[in-house]
Every structure is written in C-alpha cells, then in structure tokens.
C-alpha cells in the first residue's frame, strides 16, 4: 500500500520548496565533485607526464663493447664483391651465426669458385658469388669496441641513451647488436682536432655500468645498474621548439675524470617536425675545452647539450674542415627512437 500525500495548496507549496532545496544541494554537490575530480585528474596526469620529461644529462666517456648478430666484413679484397660492413648470413645455404661457423663451412667446401654467399648490405639482402681464396683472405669480426659519450640516464627507469648516432661499419648503418655493454673510463688521452683533421679520445676501461642491444638511428639504448644518481641534477626535456639560438653548454668528462660544463653557441636550428639528424648546429666557444680538444673529437658523440634548466640535444657530428663547429640531434628524437 502506498502512502499518498494530502495535496492541499499549503502542503503543495511546502513540498515544492523541499524539492527545490534538494535539487539545489544535488547540483552544488555535482559541481564540487566535478571540480575536484577534474583537478585531481589533471594533476595526476601532469605528474605522470613530468616523471617522463626529466632526465639526468651525464657526459661520461664510455667504452662500448658489443657482440654482433652476424659476422661483419672488415676489409675489402681486389676481385671480391664483398664490401666493408657486409653481414654474412649464409654460405652455400649454410647458416653463419659465428666466425667458427664460417671457418667450418669454408674449410669443408670442395669447390673453389662460384661460392654462393648471402649477405645483408644496408637494408638489402642478396646473394653474391665469391671464390674460396678471396673468402679466406677477407677479415671478419663479430665484436666491436670503441669510445663515445653517455648522453642521459632516466632517473626513474635507469634507461640510458648514448652516442647520438647509430653504430656503423662501412656503408652498413644500424648494425644489429646481439648484446653489448658500456663501461666508465679514466686516464683520458686526447688527440686534438685541427683544421681538416678530427681528433679522437682514448681511455682506460673501468667498471661495467650497463647493457644494451638496441642500436638506433640516434644512438644506443639500454639500462644501467648500481649507479648512485643522488648528486646528479635532473633537467627537463626540451621540446624541439623550445631550443633557442645563443648560449648553451655541453657536459663532458675531463682529464680529471669529472664531468664539467663547457660553453658553446647554438648557431643554427632546424625546426624539424619529424625525427632527423643535424637539427642543431653548434660552435665550441669555451677556451679551456678548445685548448684541450681543439673542438669536437671522435668519442664526443653523445655529449649532452643543455640550455638553462633543459636538456636539448646531444652532439652527433663534427665538421672536418672546422672541428670547432658541429651538429647535434634533438633530445626528443633520441627519446622517440627509443620508444
């Protein structure tokens, strides 16, 4: 049984007032809820975004050691179609996964010419014909080692980026890496750059700090272990359109084995809308760095570029005819390539 209100005029007015008050309270509660919910949502989104937008620029000189997925041609022989940087995939339909595989197959061959060799050159895979004598004279390797600079470490994930360009051999770019490691170095020995001659850095390998297997267009990517980052400053990742002409700094390890800021000038910027190299053109202006290196040297690839409180990019190339001038890649492109 339903209870039905007695609808005289006075009761009806009172009832309408009660309903109006209830509707008003509900409306107020709704707006308050919407305000706090939207603010909390935006705040949590900005926190999540902020965590991904801060990196620690490093500048340490690294020794990079890597085992390649395939054996690579390291020299060229007259009369042999193989070129430096070619990856050997098969010989006479036999898979080649190591130098031992190659030696075994070659030593087992009974024929001496028209040997079928399947190779990868840049982005193409095709077959060549070689004679046995030439194949026995070609030098192969599936290990590489060199020096470059540690660009950044993500303080949250411990992911790192370095080099700022792919590891290449000959004409082959982005050589597939099976596994690699990076190590800190000390006892730097720098051969200075001069006009027409880009110098280089050599150093003594120290402790291994991380591993990688990703060789991208804009450098190697991996993760680090057992590194204390508590005394390192975090910098915000600059958007491409936030990079400005004028004063900036690079962070680089010196002969005292400390990472120091050196003054540079950003003299040109390309407003790139998609990932590409050479977006930033720089000039070394710091007198101390010029005395020590003569400009940009081999081994500085990956050196972080900072401007104010932002990390904006990394050094990638030097101009041979004027090594005080070089190019950098935007940090945004290094990060996008890693994802």
From TrEMBL:
Keywords, sorted A to Z: Membrane, Transmembrane, Transmembrane helix
PROSITE patterns named among the record's database cross-references: SPOIVB
Parts of the chain that traverse the membrane: 21-38
Keyword Transmembrane: yes
Name of the featured protein: Peptidase S55
Pfam families: Peptidase_S55 (PF05580)
InterPro entries membership: PDZ_sf (IPR036034), Peptidase_S1_PA (IPR009003), Peptidase_S55 (IPR008763)
Residue ranges occupied by any Peptidase S55 domain in the UniProt entry: 116-339
């Amino acid at each position: 049984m339903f209870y039905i209100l007695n609808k005289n005029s006075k009761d009806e007015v009172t009832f309408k007032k009660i309903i109006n008050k209830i509707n008003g309270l509900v409306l107020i509660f709704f707006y308050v809820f919407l305000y706090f919910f939207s603010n909390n949502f935006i705040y949590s989104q900005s926190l999540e975004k902020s965590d991904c937008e801060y990196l620690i620029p490093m500048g340490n000189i690294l020794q990079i050691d890597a085992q390649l997925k395939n054996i690579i041609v390291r020299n060229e022989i007259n009369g042999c179609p193989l070129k430096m940087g070619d990856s050997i995939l098969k010989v006479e339909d036999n898979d080649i996964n190591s130098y031992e595989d190659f030696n075994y197959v070659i030593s087992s061959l009974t024929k001496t010419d028209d040997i079928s060799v399947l190779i990868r050159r840049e982005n193409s895979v095709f077959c060549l014909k070689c004679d046995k004598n030439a194949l026995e004279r070609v030098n192969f390797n599936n290990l590489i080692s060199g020096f470059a600079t540690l660009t950044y470490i993500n303080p949250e994930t411990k992911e790192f980026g370095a080099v700022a360009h792919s590891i290449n051999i000959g004409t082959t770019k982005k050589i597939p890496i099976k596994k690699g490691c990076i190590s800190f170095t000390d006892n730097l020995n720098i051969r200075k750059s001069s006009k027409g001659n880009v110098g280089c850095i050599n150093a003594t390998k120290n402790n291994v700090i991380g591993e990688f297997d990703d060789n991208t267009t804009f450098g190697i990517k991996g993760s680090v272990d057992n590194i204390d980052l508590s005394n390192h400053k975090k910098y915000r990742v600059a958007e491409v359109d936030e990079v400005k002409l004028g004063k900036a700094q690079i962070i680089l390890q010196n002969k005292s084995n400390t990472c120091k800021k050196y003054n540079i000038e950003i003299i040109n910027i390309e407003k790139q809308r998609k990932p590409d190299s050479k977006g930033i053109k720089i000039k070394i202006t710091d007198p101390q760095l010029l005395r020590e290196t003569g400009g940009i040297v081999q081994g500085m690839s990956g050196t972080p570029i900072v401007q104010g409180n932002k990390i904006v990019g990394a050094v990638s190339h030097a101009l041979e005819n004027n090594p005080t001038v070089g190019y950098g890649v935007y940090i945004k492109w290094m990060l996008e390539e890693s994802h």
